[in-house]
Design a protein that fits this description.
2 domains; about 100 residues; mainly alpha; single chain
Length: about 100
């Protein structure tokens, strides 16, 4: 469950430079508790549908790997576009036969 929180939500403002007020921290704690409860409910639902915790963790791991590979590909496509003097948006349909949503 904590792993899911780290994957789905950015670090809290309290972990960012300059900190925040006590009131803001209390609000943030309340939000995180609500998200934790929602994730517990989602996990329980998936378990009731027959998924195992190991399978769910494996899927999350594979999603991280996919996103890392996709990010590397996006970076390369962006660098190639810069070399060609065009925008990445222009390169997708013209040279890669891809839609922007791909």
């Amino acid at each position: 469950n904590v792993f899911s929180l780290l994957y789905r939500f950015p670090p809290p403002a309290s972990c960012q430079p300059n900190g925040t007020s006590q009131e803001a921290l209390q609000y943030e704690i309340k939000e995180l508790k609500q998200k934790d409860l929602a994730l517990d409910q989602e996990t329980a639902q998936l378990l009731s549908e027959g998924y195992s915790l190991e399978e769910l963790e494996q899927r999350i791991s594979l999603l991280h790997e996919y996103n890392d590979i996709k990010d590397a590909g996006q970076t390369l496509l962006g660098k190639l576009a810069v070399i060609r003097g065009v925008t990445t948006k222009q390169r997708y349909p013209e040279y890669y036969d891809l839609e922007l949503s791909d």
